[in-house]
Amino acid sequence: MSNLEKYLAIRNLVNSTEKRGLVYGASFSEFLILRAVEAGGPNGVRRVDLADQVALSVSGVTRALAPLEKLGYIDHQEEHLDARVRRVALTKSGRELFIDIEKDVQLLMEQIDNSIAELGLILKK
Q1: CATH number of 3-124
Q2: pLDDT tens per residue, range 83-124
C-alpha cells in the first residue's frame, strides 16, 4: 500500500467520523467544543483557551460557537477585571445536551476503535 493510499484511508476514517450525526444532529466537532466548555465549569472558559484546546483559531471558535449560542446551549460572559476577555459557559440546556451527546460519543468511540483496528491491518499491508 502506498503512502498516498494510507493517507487517504486515514482521512476517510476521520471524515466518516465527523459526518456521523450525534444526538440532535450535533457534529463531533461541536461535541469537542461542548466538552472543552463543560470542563471550564460554571465560570466558563476563555475563547483563546478554548481555541487552544480544540485546535482552532479564535475566529474559528467564534464561528463554531455561533450556532450553539443561537440554540441556547452557550452563554457569553465578560471578565470582571478585563472587559476585552470573553468567556463562554454552558447553559442548563447546553449541559443536558452535552450529557446526551457524551453517551452517543461513547458508542461512536467503540465503532471507531473497530475501524482503527481494521485500518491498522490495511496500513500494515
Answers
A1: 1.10.10.10
A2: 667 889 999 999 998 888 888 777 777 777 777 777 776 667
